[in-house]
Structures are given as structure tokens and as C-alpha cells.
Design goal:
Layout: H1 46-60, E1 75-78, H2 80-88, E2 95-99, H3 106-118, E3 121-125, H4 127-133, E4 142-146, H5 154-163, E5 169-174, H6 179-191, E6 196-200, H7 209-214, E7 224-227, H8 230-239, E8 243-247, E9 253-254, E10 265-270, H9 278-283, E11 286-289, H10 301-316
Parallel strand pairs: 2-3, 5-6, 5-10, 6-7, 8-10, 8-11, 9-11
Antiparallel strand pairs: 1-4, 2-4
Helix pairs in contact: 2-3, 6-10
């Protein structure tokens, strides 16, 4: 009979019996886990892998050096011709970046040879990295990095001259913003036995790669000082017994009559357009004009400084 079956686990009724439960002891396991996290936060999801890769790239990405030769920053020389010319002229580069799989022409070979001779670091980089470093400039696969220029203090220039037993011959630039003019002045100072150049800290050209190139390597042996306030620097020179001479088209003394060039002197050159600023002009002991019988209204800073320095060197023998 059905009710007398001896088989185990045989169901004898259609009604379900009591189920084995937790007795309420596992309620925590029944609690919800909150809202579903976004795809970028779910492990194994495609968007999660992309987010992790981007975070890793950002952690290892180096900031691109800023251009312009500002204090405390490096500068980049970009392009095959500029890089080769900079290395030829002795611009103190530290690293040469070369694009991977670059087309090997004469300029690339010369750049690599010069970099090897100068002991520069040679680094190979993909095009995308060089594009990022140069902010998209046409680098042509070559980028040279130049460390920040180490400026002297204005008083160091006169001290070095006196230590050598010579009367200081210094050029100060007022409002000259073209680095090529600064480089030309540095070159003239070196050629005619001067002791250095002073530039203001603001609104003035600094020792960039362009200035180095124009100086034709003479910046390596002719110091450039940076003055926080040019007027105060000139007053300090005056207190040390130096004559401050400003170049001006309407100067009261002509260059050939300037006896101050025989002794310790600071020659102040203004910009071609505006000339000397008011405060600097008032600080000068004398204002001197360069005779120009050809009728030219003015000379750029590099040429004007060269003319006066030649006259000073001639008088000093």
C-alpha cells in the first residue's frame, strides 16, 4: 500500500514540509550592496581597464619644459637647423632628443656627431612625445634642451674687474627685449675687453638660446648679471666710484669728447624705439650721443654698444 512503502525519501503527500533556515541569524547576508558602481569602477570592465591605463600614464608623464628661458626653467631648441646651429655655436645644451625612426640626413648626422663630441645626453623618443614637449611645434625630429642660465650679481662684475687690476667697463641694457641684441652686446663686450652686461629682471631680454647663438659662444666667458631694479644697480655703481653714461640721440656730449671712457664706467643702452626710460636717464651722470653723419636716426642696441666699446678699448690702449 502507498502508506506502507519502505523506500526512503518517498513522498507520500503533495504538501511541502518545513524548510531548514537560518533562524534569522544571517540577516546581514540579505542586506543590499547599494547602487551598481559605474562601469569605470567595475573590475574587469573595459572602461575600468581604460581608466587604469590613463591614470598610470598621468602618473609617469613628465611636464614639458617651458620655453623662453625664464628663471628656474629649461628651454628647448626645436628643429634640425636651429639645433645644429646652436650646437655649432656652443650653446650649453645638456640633452638631445631624437625622434624614433627619423629620416637620417646631413643635419641629423651632424647634430648627433656634435652631441657626442660635447658629451650631451642622447635620448630617443617617439614623435608623440616630442610633439607634447614642444607644444606641437615643427621639431623635425630634433629637440635640444638647455638648462636655465646662471646670472651673476651686478656687483660681481665690478668686483671681478677690480680683482684683475682693471677699471670696470660694463654695459647695462634698459628696455632691450630682443635676445639677439643681448647676444650681440655680449659678443661686443667680450671683443673689446669689457667685464659684463647687466639686464633688468623684468621686461627685458634674457640669456635664451637665441642670445647664446648671437653671442657666438662668447657668453661662456662674459658674465651677464640680472638686476631686480636697474636704477638701484646703477646708483650702487656710482657709489663705488663708477661713471654711468647713457646713450641718447639728444645727449649733451659727443662720443669722441667723452673722457669718462678712460676710467671705470657703465654704458647704458636703451631700446631702439624708446631709448632710455625716464628714471634711468635721470640717474645717468652723462648722456652721450654717437655722431651719425649719414643721417640715420638711431642704431640698434647691439651696434650702438659696439661703437662705444670700440672707442673705450681704443682709449684704454
Amino acid at each position: 500500500m502507498a502508506g506502507n512503502s519502505q523506500r526512503r525519501n518517498r513522498r507520500t503527500s503533495n504538501k511541502k514540509g518545513a524548510q531548514v533556515g537560518s533562524g534569522g541569524k544571517r540577516r546581514r547576508s540579505l542586506e543590499g550592496k547599494g547602487p551598481t558602481p559605474p562601469a569605470s569602477a567595475r573590475k574587469g570592465h573595459v572602461k575600468n581597464r581604460v581608466a587604469n591605463a590613463q591614470a598610470k600614464q598621468a602618473a609617469h608623464r613628465r611636464p614639458a619644459p617651458r620655453r623662453g628661458g625664464a628663471k628656474g626653467t629649461a628651454e628647448l631648441v626645436v628643429g634640425r637647423n636651429p639645433v645644429v646651429e646652436a650646437l655649432r655655436e656652443g650653446v650649453p645644451a645638456t640633452t638631445l632628443y631624437v625622434q624614433q625612426f627619423i629620416d637620417n640626413d646631413e643635419r641629423v648626422r651632424e647634430a648627433l656627431q656634435l652631441a657626442t663630441e660635447l658629451g650631451l645626453n642622447l635620448l630617443e623618443a617617439p614623435r608623440a612625445e616630442l610633439d607634447r614637449m614642444t607644444n606641437g611645434l615643427n621639431h623635425q625630429g630634433l629637440v635640444a634642451q638647455i638648462p636655465p642660465y646662471e646670472y651673476a650679481h651686478p656687483e660681481d662684475l665690478s668686483a671681478a674687474a677690480l680683482d684683475a687690476g682693471e677699471d670696470p667697463l660694463i654695459v647695462a641694457l634698459d628696455g632691450v627685449t630682443d635676445p639677439r641684441n643681448l647676444g650681440a652686446v655680449v659678443r661686443s663686450v667680450s671683443a673689446f675687453g669689457g667685464h659684463g652686461v647687466v639686464v633688468p629682471e623684468r621686461r627685458a631680454a634674457g640669456m635664451t638660446a637665441g642670445a647664446w647663438k648671437t653671442s657666438a659662444g662668447t657668453a661662456a666667458r662674459t658674465p651677464v648679471a640680472r638686476a631686480t631694479n636697474l636704477t638701484r644697480a646703477l646708483e650702487t655703481y656710482q657709489k663705488a666710484g663708477m661713471t654711468v653714461v647713457g646713450l641718447a640721440a639728444d645727449g649733451e656730449v659727443e662720443l669722441q669728447d667723452l673722457a669718462a671712457l678712460d676710467g671705470p664706467v657703465v654704458i647704458v643702452v636703451g631700446s631702439e624705439g624708446k631709448g632710455l626710460s625716464r628714471l634711468v636717464g635721470e640717474t645717468c651722470d652723462l648722456r652721450v650721443r654717437i655722431p651719425m653723419p649719414g643721417g640715420a636716426e638711431s642704431l640698434n642696441a647691439g651696434v650702438a654698444a659696439g661703437v662705444v666699446l670700440w672707442e673705450a678699448a681704443r682709449r684704454r690702449g
